[in-house]
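Job type: complex structure
Entries:
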Amino acid sequence: MPTLLLYLLILPLATAVLVAALGPARGDIIRRVSLISTLGSLALAAILAIDFASQGREDRAGPPGFAPSMVTRWDLLPMQGSPGEEGAAIQFYIGVDGLNIWLVVLTALLMVPCVLVSWTAIEERTHEFYAWLLALQTGMTGVFLAFDIVLFYVFFELTLVPLFFLIGIWGGPQRQYAARKFFIYTLAASLITLLGVLGVILVLFQERVTDKVTFSIPQLVRLVQDHSQKLPEDVQTARKRLADTLDEMAKAPPVGGVDSAADRRLRAASKDVDEAESKLAFWRKVQLWVFAALMCGFAVKVPLAPLHTWLPLAHVEAPTAGSVLLAGVLLKIGVYGFLRLCVPLAPDASLTFGAPLISVLAVLGIIYGSFCALAQDDIKKLVAYSSVAHLGFCMLGLFALNEAGLSGSLLQMINHGLSTGALFLLVGMLYERYHTRKMADYGGMASRLHLLGAAMVFITMTSVGLPGLNGFVGETLVLFGMYDFQGNEVNGRLLASLACFGVLLGAWYMLTMVRGVFFGEVKEPHHHGHGPRGDLNLREIFALAPIALVCVALGVYPKAFLDVARPDLQALAHMAGAARQRALVTVSDKSLVEKTPARADEKTAANRIGD
Amino acid sequence: LTIVDSSLFTALTGYIPSLAPEAILGVVACVLFLGGTWRPSRRLWGLVALLGLAGAGFTLWASSDWAPTMESLRDQIARQEERLATLVMPHERAAEETALEKNKLTLHTMTYASPIQHTRLAILIKVLALVGGVILVLFSWNDMPANQASDYHGCLLIMLAGVCLIGASNEMITLFLALEMVSIPTYIMLYLPRQDSAVQEAAMKYFLISVFSSALTLFGFSYLYGVAGTTNLPAMAEALAIGRATAPLPGVVLVALVMVVAGLGFRITAVPFHFYAPDVYQGTTTGMAALLAFIPKVAGFMALIRLLGFVPPILVPGVDSAPLASLAFTGQSMGEQAPVLLWIMAAVTMTLGNLLGLLQDNIKRMLAYSSVAHAGYMLIGLAVAPKLASGPGAPVGGVEAVLFYLMAYGAMTIGAFGVLNYLSTPERPVETIDELAGLGRSRPGLALVMVLFLFSLIGMPLTAGFAGKLMLFFGAMGAPFQEDSPALLEQARLYRILALIAVLNAAIGAWFYLRIAVYMYLREPIQTEWPARSTPGFLAIALCALVTLGAGVYPGPLVRAIQNAVPHVTDALPTTHRAAQHQVDGPAVARGD
């Protein structure tokens, strides 16, 4: 079955090359070929999901960490040792596990409507458009499938190139600026991420946690876990030994001068404590930097509140397919990066530094994004800002760092992909008919476009979290998770309440938009002559129907979805739990034992000499 | 005594066969100079130049038979020692011992007396020079007036021979002569293509600054000779290291260091010796600009690597270990200031190059600043190299990263110039970015290749530029944290800051490279008529694209070849030291408890 993953990567890329080679004249063939390719990918992804879900869970049991299945590994750039040797090489290493399986399916699912919705909207340079679109699919799928850290980065950056062209060539009036801003923003941030990645790899190597440089994510995660676990234990052991020695000396006061055996033992013990403590402090500092560097790239991609400015611009300027993929999949790469790399590779920093910072930023994003959405007149911009708010929920759940929060975050990623993807599709369809996105230009459209109106109402409901639909489950889990935050880094209850307010705001702006555009007094803008007329046609229905179906399915029976991901989410929650334990233990220990026993010891020694 | 005589003789003449490729290049260059007077023709003399390069390449390939590398001699010695250990019969032993002694003495004398080191690294540089030469000959096939084509190609071959010699030189004098072999033909070549005032100004500017920089380098050499008492490079590095171990080096060494780095900084267009580059690149033809962006850079970096002692010589294993190798051959033979100087130069060079690149509308000027910026990236490798050599550093050494980046840089920059050249005619050269507008529609294939080069210059994955940057960053991030010494800890931190400066620069640079892509793809075409296709120009671009993509997608073989070629300082350490080093390098298990 590993070849299935390869097919998933190769099929879109091969089609992209084929489509590009077909040339600009054969628009119809190009569209059909692209549609067949995306349907093929969807079928492959479905087979993959069924296959993966039916695998026994005991296959994936083991120590907490990532254990991908259906693995393919080839050496790309050996760093140490002879070729063929296991380990020190940048590898082509792909696989699936509970964290990425649904994102891969989501990518394949959203590609089909993207092709369908561009059917008549893109008339110019068709072959290039579909080639870039399909190349983007390979890039996105690759990011999710990659289990080598450099490969992950490679795919991460390769998603930029197609989207740069998609926005830049087929976008709105400000497309060139939007494309370049999007590209530079993400590139600059992701380069810093690359430094963080290299940093963690090399520190592990220099600290001799491993004798070989490794780029495999599962192995790195394991090493980080072991090392983070070992250092506090070392500190505790050393402290215990020191305490024992002190006890002994208290019981039987040593005879002799400074150089007596007991004295030497005391010195050695306190030196051990110092060494272990400085190692732990160093490791924590490293983690902090690693976290900060990794956060840079992913926070821009998510985007977290102060770094989001590229997003509305890129969304508004992008063609519909670009917006759908940008919101539906590409933003998820940011959250996925936190899930896959940031938390496992810097667990302690994620807890002590990440959780307070990011959960506050996330709530800020929820509230700020909602208010911005409320203020928009452009429907697309409204949906773009709603993305900022929804992604805030994803991040909030993630940094609750417990199972409920993580599951909610993962579910919310998929939900947002589906419902915001569908919203962008609908906005695109509306725009194609009337060439305006201003809310003020519309009114009472539901009486003109029955199906489109119905679809919009339905998708709005999924987006605002109506019980029984997918959004509800995700948001609830996220709020549960945050409310239940263990530890005192974050005031979970306050943040959860604020986020609840955000849910309310979400309903407010979405429903305002629906009321303004689809209900009330009829106000139909002038039709511009080209593009489809009237209600949804069959092609558009086919584009929307699968998304709507999945929304209902996820809302009614989310267990099937979550069960598949659970073991890996539990592993993540376990890592975070261990970090929490470590943080607690060392803090309480510090208050128990004097920080500078060595100096105290010297003082007593000096006193003794004075006597 | 006869052994000494014969080995001295071998050492002083043994390198001559290894110079066959350079000799062929020189002879073919003479043929070109003379032949040009007989018959002006582009195609004929271009073919002759290509044949010359092919001949040199073939000689290089076949030379393993008659000109063994010093590494192979060293390996032979190791094998002989092994065999000696198994022999018991006295007469066999005696014969073997004599042979062994002779070989050892030969290797020793070659290292410390021969003006040329025929090592794997030298071969690597020769291959790089020859492949680059083929691309450049193809590139400027139609660039020249027919009656000057032969002179142009002849000069190019001489330059390439100079680059080959720099890679192999073991003496300051040889090194200087080789550097001049690269510079002097450039002055002629700059005058050849056109006689208008812009070209003359560019040539004059280049000539004056180049002569000045040569003088600076020579000035530095004279001080070095005065302090070390030898012109042999390994001996000089060791002498300085021994001096440094006992007492602080005299100030003149620092002066020499600054002079040498300044003189060579001109060739690699490092700030503040970069300012001629934009004017000269803009003033001259595209072919010459590509050549100037590549060949002097290879020459300058190789000369720096040789002079500052970044690579150890090939030594007799065990016995002949260089004294204080970890001081002498980690790029700080002229004092600990060298890495600091290179650090500063790297940071300033890349930042200024990228910032000034933002302001350019002329593509050749933009690429000139890009070449400045990339020199800055490569300097990171040299600045970091000392740290990586002395500690259990990154799996990729600094020198290896620089060599890889040189190759990647050569392919992508020559390629980008090649696309411009392909679109230009001598009457109407493509100069400004506006002229490329809409290229994505009028010439989609060419635009796609140009985008490949641009993305490689940015450092996007799957291109050689990414692999190169990755290796450089790896070095900078890999400087070990040694917590016991605050100064070293600070250094490790500084290297990480350098890496951060580099990535921010890469993002700044992306802005102007992307601008070209934006013009090509997102603007409406202004110009739809392009000159007829030319096969040699196409071949040159295709070769560059192949290297850019190949080294990006699957860099393994190239990296391995480079790692194989670069000698490591651990090879030059005394045996006991090496054992200790090995223990330090060992796995964590032993040290954990």
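Summary: The longest strand of chain A covers residues 69-78. Confidence is low (pLDDT under 50) at residues 81-85, 587-611 of chain A.
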